[in-house]
Amino acid sequence: MAGYIEIGASGGGKWFPKAQGEAMCIENRHTPGKENWFYSIAEQCRAENKYMMVTIDIPFDRAFSTTGPEWQQRCYGIKNYLQARGFNRQTCDISVINEPMKSEKAITVETYLWLVDLTCKVFQPDFKVGFGNEEYDLAMTKKDSQGNDFYTAGAKRTKAEKMYIHIQSSMRSPAHIEAKCNHLKAIAGKYSKEIDCNEASYENVADPNGWNTVKYQIKKAKDIGCPHIAIVFLNLDGPEKYKFLTFVWRGADRTINSDNPYGSHWKELLHLIEIERKAKQGQEEDGMKLDEIYKEGSRGIGVKFIQMILNQDMKPDPLLKVDGIWGSKTNAIVLAYQEKYNLSQYGGAIGPNTMQDMIKQYPGIWDNVQYLYAIGVR
């Protein structure tokens, strides 16, 4: 689990302006007849070093009728373009069809699974391939020939490495977001798939309640281990019917709110993006390395996190000084902590497994430490 989530934009296309500089990642759809939009956004991602989530899509206004060889030929064309422009597994991944179970697309679950595996044959191992991209409620009603729901079928029966989820229309309250995301995370975990989110929101982001829902979507995506979350939309030049979805419409911030501490929901989102951006940069350089072994003599913000946990969990008297220095006092409390949780075999060292358990047990402390790191505290 990374200590950050890349917040970005979804729904690339005709009305997707160049001014997506704030986004950390982009969901970019390759749709027949609209390839120039795809190439334009791909060049932006390449130039601005943004992670790109490619969705090989089909038009909404007609039923699917492509043959296997035609699909693979299209996939090879996309792959050749991506590799020629320098994209690879670290900068880009592939998913199959946006919202494939919508009735207009006339695709069965079996046909979809077949397309995913055809896509895997073309792109793997050079790129990760994902399946899903569907609304939870609809996905749960769609079954394969074995009686599995759409997401379980994809996780169980395809060679895709990733399971892409949508956190939006069917997840519009904290209770729904919690329950449904937890269910999807359980499916991904059972079949050893990575989980990610390439579409979120579908809320009126100018409304405080809608904006609070979006923030909850971001938080939950991060909680379940999604490395990315792409929001529909950040910045849009499109028709008025999509205006309610976007923070910036035709160049103007439409989320100004005098009750918001940042002055608008857009400015608060930019603040959240900056926190995640700095957390990513810090972790890549010298930050919270979850694969590190911490022990007596260790220093840094990782030790601060451990000291905060020990103060909360063990309640030593006096409390440990949260200074990021693992000295004899910290060591003594670590040994007591390990005895309490039957971890004495680790001999006073704290490694990745214990760190992950601490994060799960005290997510609020973890979030605070990530914020401190993001603003430069070491």
Estimate percent helicity. 40-55%
Tell me the number of structural domains. 2
Alpha-carbon Rg, integer: 22 Å
> What distance separates the N and C termini?
20 Å
CATH class of the largest domain: Alpha Beta
Order of helices and strands: EEHEHEHEHHEHEHEEEEHHHHH
Overview of the molecule:
With 378 residues, the chain is α/β, with parallel strands linked by helices. The protein folds into two domains: 6-285, TIM Barrel (Alpha-Beta Barrel); 301-374, no CATH class. It is built from twelve helices and eleven strands. It has an eight-stranded parallel beta sheet. Strand 2 (25-30), helix 1 (35-48) and strand 3 form a beta-alpha-beta unit. Helix 2 packs parallel to helix 3, helix 6 (174-190) runs parallel beside helix 7 and helix 9 packs antiparallel against helix 12. The longest helix has 21 residues, at 265-285. The mean pLDDT is 89.
Outline of the structure:
The protein has about 375 residues and is of the alpha/beta class. It is built from twelve helices and eleven strands.
Which terms would index this structure?
single chain; 378 residues; alpha/beta; TIM Barrel; 2 domains; 8-stranded parallel beta sheet; 3-stranded mixed beta sheet
Topology diagram in text:
Elements: E1 6-9, E2 25-30, H1 35-48, E3 51-56, H2 68-84, E4 92-96, H3 109-123, E5 128-134, H4 136-141, H5 150-157, E6 162-167, H6 174-190, E7 194-201, H7 208-223, E8 228-232, E9 235-236, E10 248-249, E11 252-253, H8 265-285, H9 301-314, H10 328-340, H11 352-361, H12 363-374
Parallel strand pairs: 1-8, 2-3, 3-4, 4-5, 5-6, 6-7, 7-8, 9-10
Antiparallel strand pairs: 10-11
